[in-house]
Amino acid sequence: MMELTTEEQERIHAIQRVLEGDHPVFIYQDLHRSKKWFNKWLNRYHTGNVYWYKDLSKRPHNIRKKTDTRIETAVVRIRTSLMDGSDESTRYSFVGAEAIQFQMEKLGYEPSDVPSQSTIKRVIKRNKLRVNKKERYKRVKSKGRHTIFHPDCIDEMHVLDIVGQRHIKGFGSINSIHLKDVIGRHVAGYQYVEKSMDNVMGFLLNYWRSNPIPRYLQVDNGMSFAGDYIHLRSFSRFVRLCLYVGIGVIFIAPAKPWMNGTIEEFNKSFDRLFWQKETFTDLSDIRQKAAEFFSRQNKFYEWQMRKGKKSLESITPKHMLRTDFDINLENVPLVAGKIHFIRQVDGTGMVSVLNERFSIGGAYIGDYITAIIDTKEQSLEVLYRDEEMVVRSIKKFEYKIDETVYDLDDHIFCTVIPER
């Protein structure tokens, strides 16, 4: 008889005691085992298997079909090409399993020949083609309670950021403006020498003449967006332009870049897939190459949407600026609208909005609130998303503005929105 392990002897002894008439409770208590353990081996004994006391093999019952050598070779070559970025067809591309599926479809592989993402990941691991995982921004512990905005439509919310300064050898510094649709994922951008508000507004006006204007535009608290903070209850040219075209501006909390995670992740892709892999001669050169980069990113995002079969609706009605729209950016009138500020209540129960402090209350210390300036109503309302994810109004202040506030002029919009 083959030698038994200590655990096997214990299992056999337990069943022997059952056969000798001992009560099950006394048996598993004496052995310092659980009732679940006892029942497992009693049931195994009743199967009639001669070796019922042995551990079952952990080898899976169903052996997965080995990936076809031809397909595995294709996956390896595509992965290598994506990592190198040397081929024109894979330049500026992501390198993950989904990107490999995208490339295989572009190459004409039948859907049945395109492996699943889990299979591709196994091939990558087997061929030692893994790369370090990219760093992700820390998620807030409140699980979405920091904001009252949760868009679900295309063009409902865009995020904007300026990446700079980057230096082109033999030319000088450049800055890149980036815009992304949170839901539709469409990205756009343009490069400039100077980081100025004139460039930001010029970029946005050009974009809005050929693309839908979002309901909300989210940015950080940089002075180029928010203003100089010197004059109380005055608004930057950027804010005025957004209100003028019907956009509600959202300022994230200071020093909280994870709140702009959508655009920050794209900025990392811009750096990793474009800036670090290309060489540039001047501003014209980087603009030309960046246009191709943005185009390829959008094609991939569009493929992701189709592949996911997500039925996403666009905002209605859609607005876009008339092609002949023009405005003096040095003198943009203040239009009725709303400006939103995500703020964390400090240790004294206060928040700062445009360098002016408002008392929220000690009960909200450490929590995030959204303060909304309504230029038409001339009020500042504070909204709070509670533990039940219900948005409540908790404070309201008078917010007098010492200038004329005009109504939105619908004549600045065109009536037909072309498809992208």
Taking pLDDT < 50 over at least 5 consecutive residues as the criterion, the unreliable ranges are: 136-141
Task: Indicate the mean pLDDT.
Answer: 87
Q: Largest beta sheet, briefly? A: 9 strands, mixed
Strand arrangement across the biggest beta sheet: 3-2-1-4-5-8-11-12-13
H-E string: HHHHHHEEEHEHHEHHEEEEEEEEEE
Give me the secondary-structure category.
alpha/beta
How would you portray this structure in words?
The chain is an alpha/beta fold and 420 residues long. Among the domains are: 63 residues, no CATH class; 58 residues. The protein is built from eleven helices and 15 strands. The strands form four sheets. The protein has a nine-stranded mixed beta sheet, with helices on both faces. Strands 6-15 form a two-stranded antiparallel ribbon. Helix 5 packs across helix 6. The longest helix is centred in the last third of the chain and has 26 residues. It is extended, with a radius of gyration of 30 Å. The termini are far apart. The relative contact order is 0.10. About 1% of the residues have low confidence.
Label this structure with key terms.
32% helix, 11 helices, alpha/beta, 420 residues
Set down the secondary structure blueprint.
Layout: H1 6-19, H2 24-30, H3 35-46, H4 69-84, H5 97-106, H6 117-126, E1 157-168, E2 172-181, E3 187-192, H7 197-208, E4 216-219, H8 223-226, H9 237-244, E5 248-251, H10 261-275, H11 283-308, E6 320-321, E7 334-335, E8 338-344, E9 350-353, E10 356-359, E11 368-374, E12 379-385, E13 391-398, E14 405-406, E15 413-414
Parallel strand pairs: 1-4, 4-5, 5-8, 7-14
Antiparallel strand pairs: 1-2, 2-3, 6-15, 8-11, 9-10, 11-12, 12-13
